Amino acid sequence: MHQKKEEYKKYTEKRAKRSPVLKNCFASFWVGGLICAFGQSLFTLYSSLGADIRTAYTLVTVSLIFLAALLTGLGIFDNIARYAGAGTLVPVTGFANAVVSPAIDTKSEGLILGVGAKIFTVAGPVLLFSTLCGAVYGVIYFLFEIFKF
Predict the structure, then answer these.
(1) φ, ψ of residue 76 in degrees (nearest 5)
(2) Which among 14, 37, 91, 140 is placed 20 to 30 Å from 26, CA to CA?
(3) Cβ 92 vs Cβ 99: under 8 Å
(4) Is 67 exposed, middle or buried (0-12, 13-18, 19+ CB in 10 A)?
(5) pTM recorded for the entire structure
(6) Is 35 in contact with 45 (CB distance < 8 Å)?
């Protein structure tokens, strides 16, 4: 059965199940909002316990990372992410999941060749390019400050 690319594309478009875009956007919105509201409630809690603003922000970030890593380890986060999509990936919880998931998947290969070698397979490119973009931005900012554009 030799089909041309265009014929095959038409065939797959007819057979492919359409994504429920509106439903997916709604799920992403409310779960992401719930995560952010939970973060805000943690901020309020830490502030009421006497933490200054910077410390409270740091505690919120660390708490959300810890909870996302814990839920990933327990296999719960993947189910939430499957339902909510980008709603779980945009906050810092998505980054925690991106680091913990490869570590769990490769733990049977050992600590060095498994976890150590592959822990940043998902998050590594994000770290690399965000650092690179930060450096480029810093140079541009520096040049603008020198030449007073």
Answers:
(1) -85, -40
(2) 14
(3) no
(4) middle
(5) 0.70
(6) no
Rounded CA separation 44/147 (Å): 43
Torsion of CA 112, 114, 117, 123, to 10 degrees: -140
- CB proximity list for 27: less than 8 A, separation 6 or greater: 83, 84, 85, 87
Cα three-residue angle 131-134-138, rounded to 5 degrees: 140
CA dist., res. 121 & res. 98, Å (int): 8
**Would you state the structure tokens that stand for residue 95, as one six-digit string?**
């980054």
The string of pLDDT tens digits covering residues 8-58 is 888 887 788 888 889 999 999 999 999 999 999 999 999 999 999 999 999
**What would the mean pLDDT of 61-83 be, rounded to a whole number?**
93
How many residues are given for the chain? 149
